[in-house]
Amino acid sequence: MVEQQQFDVVVIGAGPAGYHAAIRAAQLGLKVACIDAALGKDGQPALGGTCLRVGCIPSKALLDSSRQFWNMGHLFGEHGIAFNDAKIDVPTMIGRKDKIVKQFTGGIAMLFKANKITPFYGFGTLHAGNVVKVKQHDGSEVELKGTNVVIAAGSDSIELPFAKFDGDTIVDNVGALNFESTPERLGVIGAGVIGLELGSVWNRLGSKVTVLEAAPSFLAAADAEVAKTAAREFKKQGLEILVGAKASKVEISGKGNKKEVTISYTDAKGEQTLVVDKLLVAVGRRAATKGLLAEDCAVKVNDRGQIEVDEHNHTGVDGVWAVGDCVRGPMLAHKGFEEGIAVAELIAGLPGHVNLDTIPWVIYTEPEIAWVGKTEEQLKAEGIPYKVGSFPFAAVGRAVAMAEPAGFAKVIAHAETDRVLGLHLVGAMVSELVHEGVLTMEFSGSADDLARICHAHPSMSEAIHDAAMAVAKRAIHKAN
C-alpha cells in the first residue's frame, strides 16, 4: 500500500500559474508540494511549464537572435554600419536558446529548494477527498493529500485531424523552436501569436513564409487600425499572410531532407495549394485536462475542456482551485502568474483578486503589437460612447532616432467620464509601454490623467502622452 503524504497545498503543474502559487503559498508558511510531468531536451525534469521550456522564453530568444540578423541586412546601413555577407549559424542560435531555457528552468528548481517546496516529477490525477495520485517517471507511485489542491495543468497545442504533428515536417511550437536549419519554404496555419512570432523568426532568417488564416480578417482580436498597420509592415518584411484561407488537407511527399508538404486550402478564389518544406500548425491551444481528473473528484469541465471556476478560481469542490491556461480567460503566462498568487493568498486567508479586464496582450513581432482593454469595435458593439486620441511614432524623436518610426499609440476613453477604456499600440518596444494603460485603468484613471503626467523626452512613451492629449484635441505635435 502506498503511504499517503500530507501537505497544506498540493499544486498540479509547475508552469507560470503553478510555480507562482507554490512559491507564494510557501512564503505564507504553508507546507507545499508541486507536481510536474515535463522533461527538458536532456530528458531531465524541467520546471516552468510551456512558457519557460517551449513558449515565451525560448521564442523571445529566437526572436531577438533573428532580429539582430535582420537588422544587419535591413537597418544597420541607415546608421552607417556595414557588413559583408552576414551569415546565421542556426545550431548556435538554437544552442543559445537552449542554454537560456536551462538557466530559467533550473532557476525554478532553486526557488523551490529555497522555499522548501517538495517537487514530484510525474503525472498527477486528482481523486475524491483532495487526494492526488502521482505516477512518477521512474514508474513508482506516490499519493499526496492536500488540505488544498491547486490545479495548474496548463494547455497543449491543438492538432488538426488532417495535419498530425510528426515533430519533423509538420510541427507545433516545439518543433518550430528547434529546426536544425532555416527551411527554404515555411507554411504556417494560423495567424495568431505563435504563428506570427515563429513565422517572423524564420522569415528574418531567410525562409519564404506563408501564413494561412481561416478568419476573414487579420488579427480580429486587436484594434482594426493596429491590425492594418501591422499587416502592412509584415508585408514589407516579406511575410505573406493570406486571410480567409481555410486549410483542409495536407500531404507529405519525398524522403529524408527532400520532403515537402502540399497544403490544400480554400479562399475567395476557390481551391488552392501551397507547397512548403516545413509546416507549423498554430491554430490555438486547449486546456491540458485529459487524464487529470478522476471521475470521483467532482471537479467539472466545460465543453472546451476547461475547468469550471468562480471569480476567485475556486472549483466549487471544497479546497480545490484551478488557475492558468486550464480555466477561462486569456491563455497568457502573466494572467497565470496573478491567478496563482491570488489563490495562494486566498488559501492563507488573505485578499486575492485578478482583474481580467486589465490583462495586457502582446505579440512580439517587429513591430510589436500590444493592447489592454476594449477596442473601438467592441465598444461600438456594446453601445458604449467613447472618444479617441492617437499619435504616430513617426512624430516621436526617439523612434525616428532609432530608425523605427512605424506604428502609433491610441488611447480610448469614455465620452462622458473620460475614464480610459483601452490603450492600443503597434511599434517598437510597445510591450513595455502598454503598462501605462494597465496602471491607468487599474486606478480608474482618465485620459486627462495620462495627459497631465510628465513623460521623459526623448522617449517612446511620449506617443502615449500625445495620444492622451489628442483625446481632448490638444495634442502639441500633431494637427487636431
From TrEMBL:
<dbReference type="Pfam" id="PF07992">
    <property type="entry name" value="Pyr_redox_2"/>
</dbReference>
<feature type="domain" description="Pyridine nucleotide-disulphide oxidoreductase dimerisation">
    <location>
        <begin position="359"/>
        <end position="467"/>
    </location>
</feature>
<keyword id="KW-0285">Flavoprotein</keyword>
<dbReference type="InterPro" id="IPR036188">
    <property type="entry name" value="FAD/NAD-bd_sf"/>
</dbReference>
<dbReference type="InterPro" id="IPR012999">
    <property type="entry name" value="Pyr_OxRdtase_I_AS"/>
</dbReference>
<dbReference type="InterPro" id="IPR004099">
    <property type="entry name" value="Pyr_nucl-diS_OxRdtase_dimer"/>
</dbReference>
<keyword id="KW-0560">Oxidoreductase</keyword>
<dbReference type="InterPro" id="IPR050151">
    <property type="entry name" value="Class-I_Pyr_Nuc-Dis_Oxidored"/>
</dbReference>
<keyword id="KW-1015">Disulfide bond</keyword>
<feature type="domain" description="FAD/NAD(P)-binding">
    <location>
        <begin position="7"/>
        <end position="340"/>
    </location>
</feature>
<keyword id="KW-0274">FAD</keyword>
<dbReference type="InterPro" id="IPR023753">
    <property type="entry name" value="FAD/NAD-binding_dom"/>
</dbReference>
<comment type="similarity">
    <text>Belongs to the class-I pyridine nucleotide-disulfide oxidoreductase family.</text>
</comment>
<dbReference type="Pfam" id="PF02852">
    <property type="entry name" value="Pyr_redox_dim"/>
</dbReference>
<dbReference type="GO" id="GO:0004148">
    <property type="term" value="F:dihydrolipoyl dehydrogenase (NADH) activity"/>
</dbReference>
<keyword id="KW-0676">Redox-active center</keyword>
<keyword id="KW-0520">NAD</keyword>
<keyword id="KW-0963">Cytoplasm</keyword>
<dbReference type="InterPro" id="IPR006258">
    <property type="entry name" value="Lipoamide_DH"/>
</dbReference>
<dbReference type="InterPro" id="IPR001100">
    <property type="entry name" value="Pyr_nuc-diS_OxRdtase"/>
</dbReference>
<protein>
    <recommendedName>
        <fullName>Dihydrolipoyl dehydrogenase</fullName>
        <ecNumber>1.8.1.4</ecNumber>
    </recommendedName>
</protein>
<dbReference type="InterPro" id="IPR016156">
    <property type="entry name" value="FAD/NAD-linked_Rdtase_dimer_sf"/>
</dbReference>
